[in-house]
Amino acid sequence: MGSEPAAAPEICTLRSLADGPRDPHERFCTVDGLAFGLSNSRAYVEAKRHIMETDRFVLAVVDGVDAGASGNFPFQLTLPGGAHVRVAGVGDVGVLTSHRRRGILRSMVDWLLEDAAARGEVASLLTASQATIYGRFGYGMAVPMRTVEIPVTAARLRDDAPRVDGTLLLHDVAVDRDELLDLLPAIHDRCAASGTLSRSDEWWGVVLGDAETYVGGHPSQRALVHHAVDGTPDGYALYRHDERWGVHGSDSALEVREVVGMTPAVELALWTALLEVDLVTTVRAPLPAHHLLDDVLVDQRALRCTSLRDHIWLRPIDVAALLGARTYAADGVLTLSIDDAVRPGSGGTFRLQVDGGSASCERVSPAPLGPSGADLSMSVADLGARVLGAGSFRAVARAGRIQGDADALAQADAMFDADPPPWTDTKF
């Protein structure tokens, strides 16, 4: 005797945390933890509570089960030249193992992009747990990152490296938190360069908090603050000790979170101090693909790269507003054909004109005209990867993903070049 067919599952419903029937942050962190195989502590949930806007985070519900989670953090992104634009930072995207391959991720990404567009945010950014996931949604890898280990015995600076007078003050973050919440944000904002992401007061509270999260925070953090001769704070380093002892003595390391300085000399003063902490044998830090230390160490091999990977992925939402806001390294005019398979309304053909470094960009056709009607033709993901100045149009063209003649490709590389390359220490 045949059995009755199983009832079809409910369509995935996305529910804003603002509509949650119980503690929405705890509910969200539970799903997020299950998706990533983690058990989030109460302290973690309380820290996240301060930076999650409930109307920007959603749960994917299937048959009454919380099956996925995702959300947008609001940021200001610094572009080459110093302009700031509003962007969405996608975070905490996860789908339970029991509910994979049902279109839940696509539903959530569609919602996140629509939410960002409705709020006037010109791009969507994310950090990816896997590098193969988000290209199909129009994200391009815009900021690379390497992790380095520096043996302190090999880390000597060249004699001609920039030096600066000033003083360094060491702070226990747990003790001096109120003072640091005044000092560090002001320095961070003054040092903003291409790729820098803004931080709200609440965000800084998590970065300098006791709860250890991927955003920041740790009960034993230290802050080293540099003050100029006139007493003005103009740089800082955030780090913690990883204390280890072997049979021959200390094998401790410094885990450096971020080093920020108003000038290269200030930044080097902070790095010099970090490399001279007693009983430390190794300094570990995340750095951009090329960093000041590469050029000032006597032994460049002292920067031992333990990983080189993608850091920030960027997806344009409003191409004209995004391209028109930054400054450029060379003048010129380019017609760009941008294919956006996920959000066709965001694609089209755009005319970018740069004069004296300043730009104007307008959409001249709602359709991507392709190589026959534009100087360069590419996907929205490949444009996103170049927006902040990293990478090369010519290199991607050699891989067959950008179409255009040699002159147009060279012109694009000259225009979009940015120095220093984009970087952010903000994790989200």
Compose a concise summary of this entry.
With 428 residues, the protein is an alpha+beta fold.
The class by helix and strand makeup works out as alpha+beta
Percent of residues in helices comes to: 10-25%
Model regions low in confidence, pLDDT < 50 over at least 5 residues: 1-9
Strand order of the largest sheet: 1-2-3-4-5-14-6-13-12-9-8-7
Structure description:
- By secondary structure, this protein is an alpha+beta fold.
- It is built from eleven helices and 19 strands.
- It has a twelve-stranded mixed β-sheet with strand order 1-2-3-4-5-14-6-13-12-9-8-7, with helices on both faces. Strands 17-16-15-18-19 form a five-stranded mixed β-sheet.
- The longest helix has 15 residues, at about 105-120.
- The N and C termini lie far apart (about 55 Å).
Itemize the secondary structure elements and their pairings.
Blueprint: E1 13-16, H1 24-36, H2 42-49, E2 57-62, E3 65-78, E4 84-95, H3 104-118, E5 123-126, E6 140-151, E7 167-172, H4 177-190, H5 201-207, E8 222-227, E9 233-242, E10 245-246, E11 249-250, E12 252-261, H6 264-274, E13 280-287, H7 292-296, E14 304-316, H8 319-325, E15 332-339, E16 348-355, E17 358-365, E18 376-379, H9 380-386, H10 393-398, E19 403-404, H11 406-416
Parallel strand pairs: 4-5, 12-13, 15-18
Antiparallel strand pairs: 1-2, 2-3, 3-4, 5-14, 6-13, 6-14, 7-8, 8-9, 9-12, 10-11, 15-16, 16-17, 18-19
